[in-house]
Amino acid sequence: MIIAIDGPAGAGKSTVAKILAKRLGFLYIDTGAMYRALTLKALNKNLDFKDEAKIIETAKNSVIELRQEAGTDNLIVLLDGEDVTLEIRHPRVTEFVSIVAKIPQVREVMVQLQRRLGLNKDAVLEGRDIGTVVFPEAQIKFYLDASKEERALRRYKELKDKGQEISLEDTAANIAYRDATDSTRHCAPLRKAADALYIDTTHMSIQEVVETLYAQVIKHGYSTHS
Ligand code: DC
Fold first, then answer.
1. What pLDDT shows up at residue 74?
2. Per-residue model confidence (pLDDT) at position 115
3. Torsion angle of the four alpha carbons 19, 41, 58, 133, in this order, in degrees rounded to the nearest 10
4. Ligand 1 center to residue 101 CA distance, Å?
5. Hey, whose CA ends up nearest to atom 9 of ligand 1?
6. Can you state the angle between helices 52-60 and 104-118, rounded to 10 degrees?
7. C-beta of residue 29 within 8 angstroms of C-beta of residue 118
8. Nearest Cα residue to 59 out of 5, 97, 13
């Protein structure tokens, strides 16, 4: 069974997807982490973000892996064998990731990888185009949303907790910029799949969102004992 969770930045997708996957015993696949890993590599190599050919070549020549850290909930992101879990959350990466993610040939490479990871598995995939492009045949699709103020606040608190020096204004500006870039790009823009369940999480706690999603999974006939 594939569960697709899409939505804009700060809607709570990662937190909820991780908890839901654990509860169901499913694999958790954070597809944004893959675009972030490639962006990090482009930054480290000092690539010009306007040079799409170079970015595409880098995407084709990179090995991006997601690993569940033993005994914890943590997802480890490996780029060419190196642990980049923390670095891919750096504001520099967040600043440029939407530019990288709008290149169609980059998306081709990532989508192939995502399909390979989820093939014949029970998995929760989280991103922007999971229900529309990566797994349009997913049995259950959710689209998580929240007001832009709430999403900026959540992201701001999350970054502060991680010790990052960033203002609420800058966080809100980045979210607005990524919303616009991710939803207006030509290739696989962020949008709700016709058969996805829309959930506005603005006034919901994480636990409430998880319960809502879990109830839907059970309604679809999935039993954790099957
Ligand atoms: O979920 P996130 O914020 O870590 O994602 C980072 C960026 O990657 C996001 O701004 C758009 C892009 N992305 C995408 O285009 N398609 C996906 N399936 C996941 C992420």
1. 85
2. 98
3. 20
4. 7
5. 98
6. 20
7. yes
8. 97
Question: What contacts 157, CB < 8 A, 6 or more positions away?
Answer: none
* % of the chain beyond a pLDDT of 90: 90
pTM higher than 0.70: yes
- Nearest CA-CA partner of 121 in 136, 131, 135: 135
Rounded to whole angstroms, the Cα distance separating 111 from 208 reads 30
Instruction: Fill in the amino acid letter for 213.
Output: L
In the reported structure, the alpha carbon of residue 223 is separated from the centroid of ligand 1 by a whole-number distance in angstroms of 30
On the CB side of 205, how many CA atoms lie within 13 Å of its CA?
3
> Can you read off the two tokens belonging to residue 131?
């229900």
123/49 Cα distance (integer angstroms): 32
CA distance 106 to 53: 10
Quick check: CB of 36 below 6 Å from ligand 1? yes
